[in-house]
Amino acid sequence: MKVVKFSGELVEYDKSKLSRSLKKSGASDEVVAEILNKIEMQLYDGISSKKIYKLAFQLLKSSANVHAARYNLRTAILGLGPAGFYFEKYIAKIHESLGFETTTNVVLNGKCVSHEIDVLLLKNDLVKMIECKFHSSNDAKSDVKIPMYILSRFNDLKDRSYRLFGSNRAINSCLIVTNNKFTEEAIKFGTGYQLEMLSWDYPLKKGLREIIDQYKIYPITCLTTLTQFEKEKLLAVDIITVKDLIEQNDWLEKLEISKNRIRKILSESHQL
To answer: 3-state class of 44 per DSSP?
Structure first.
């Protein structure tokens, strides 16, 4: 059975891969087996991976909203676009949860030119700059030109003193973050020049997906109980993560959402 990927590539249907992604949602083995059975009854040669994903999402949602929300995570991160402005804020929120002080969109003068830095981190008196590469589709990859370009920016900024986090400090290191994947050449280049890199699946077992699941730092865009309009309104007032929404849930009333729906939204949020 052939499946058409997002990129247009034809591949064999992989039941084990679909099973693993369903299990990552938190669904039980019994629910996963039932969903796989229902999906396979609707498969045909040349079916798109997008259609399989939609079938799985709807079946998970009928089982439990929270499972669908976790399964929808990668697509939900695309909802932090289209330009990636909210993705940068989301990456800052993740690092706040990891114990860093953060600030976003800072303009600094380098040795040769000025640079707008997506995120700056402070921990143990060391400053790290983060450059985010946001892709608006799941099949795009960050190639070797990305770390090459960012290395040149880092080199123009390092070894200089700036007023950061209330003191004069230098930028000590650089991290490149993407919502998708790096090519092998990009990883080789970044590793060779000691650039830290974080993508959906890199470093192995320590990628963005694992960090989000481990620390429960989910974006509000993964919530199945919110409409697209509501998500956009909440992002605009800097409610980026599900934790933000729980802590500032009065915004749900300000959006004139009914009490019954608010209970459902907060129930899904707390389960995540």
So the answer is: coil
Range of the domain at 251: 218-271
Block residue for tokens 């040769």: 112
List b or e across 142-172, with b for residues whose CB sees 16 or more CB atoms inside 10 angstroms: bebebbeebbebbebbbeeebebeeeebebe
CATH of the domain at 89: 3.40.1350.10
Is 209 within the bounds of a domain?
yes
Contacts of 198 (CB under 8 A, 6+ apart): 175, 176, 177, 178, 207, 208, 211
* Distance between first and last Cα of the chain: 35
Do residue 200 and residue 222 come from a single domain? no
Give CA torsion, residues 199, 203, 204, 206, to 10 deg: -90
* Residue type at 111 in one-letter notation: K
Residue 60 and residue 34: Cα distance in Å, rounded?
10
- Give tens-digit pLDDT for 255-265: 999 999 999 99
**Helix H or strand E encompassing 123:** strand 114-123
Rounded-to-integer distance, Cα 257 and Cα 245, Å: 14
State pTM to two decimals. Answer: 0.91
**Which residues does residue 108 pair with via DSSP β-bridges, in sequence order?**
115
Decide if 4 contacts 18 (C-beta within 8 A). no
CA angle 53/49/226 to nearest 5° reads: 30
pLDDT, tens digit (0-9, with 9 covering 90-100), for 144-162: 999 999 999 999 999 899 9
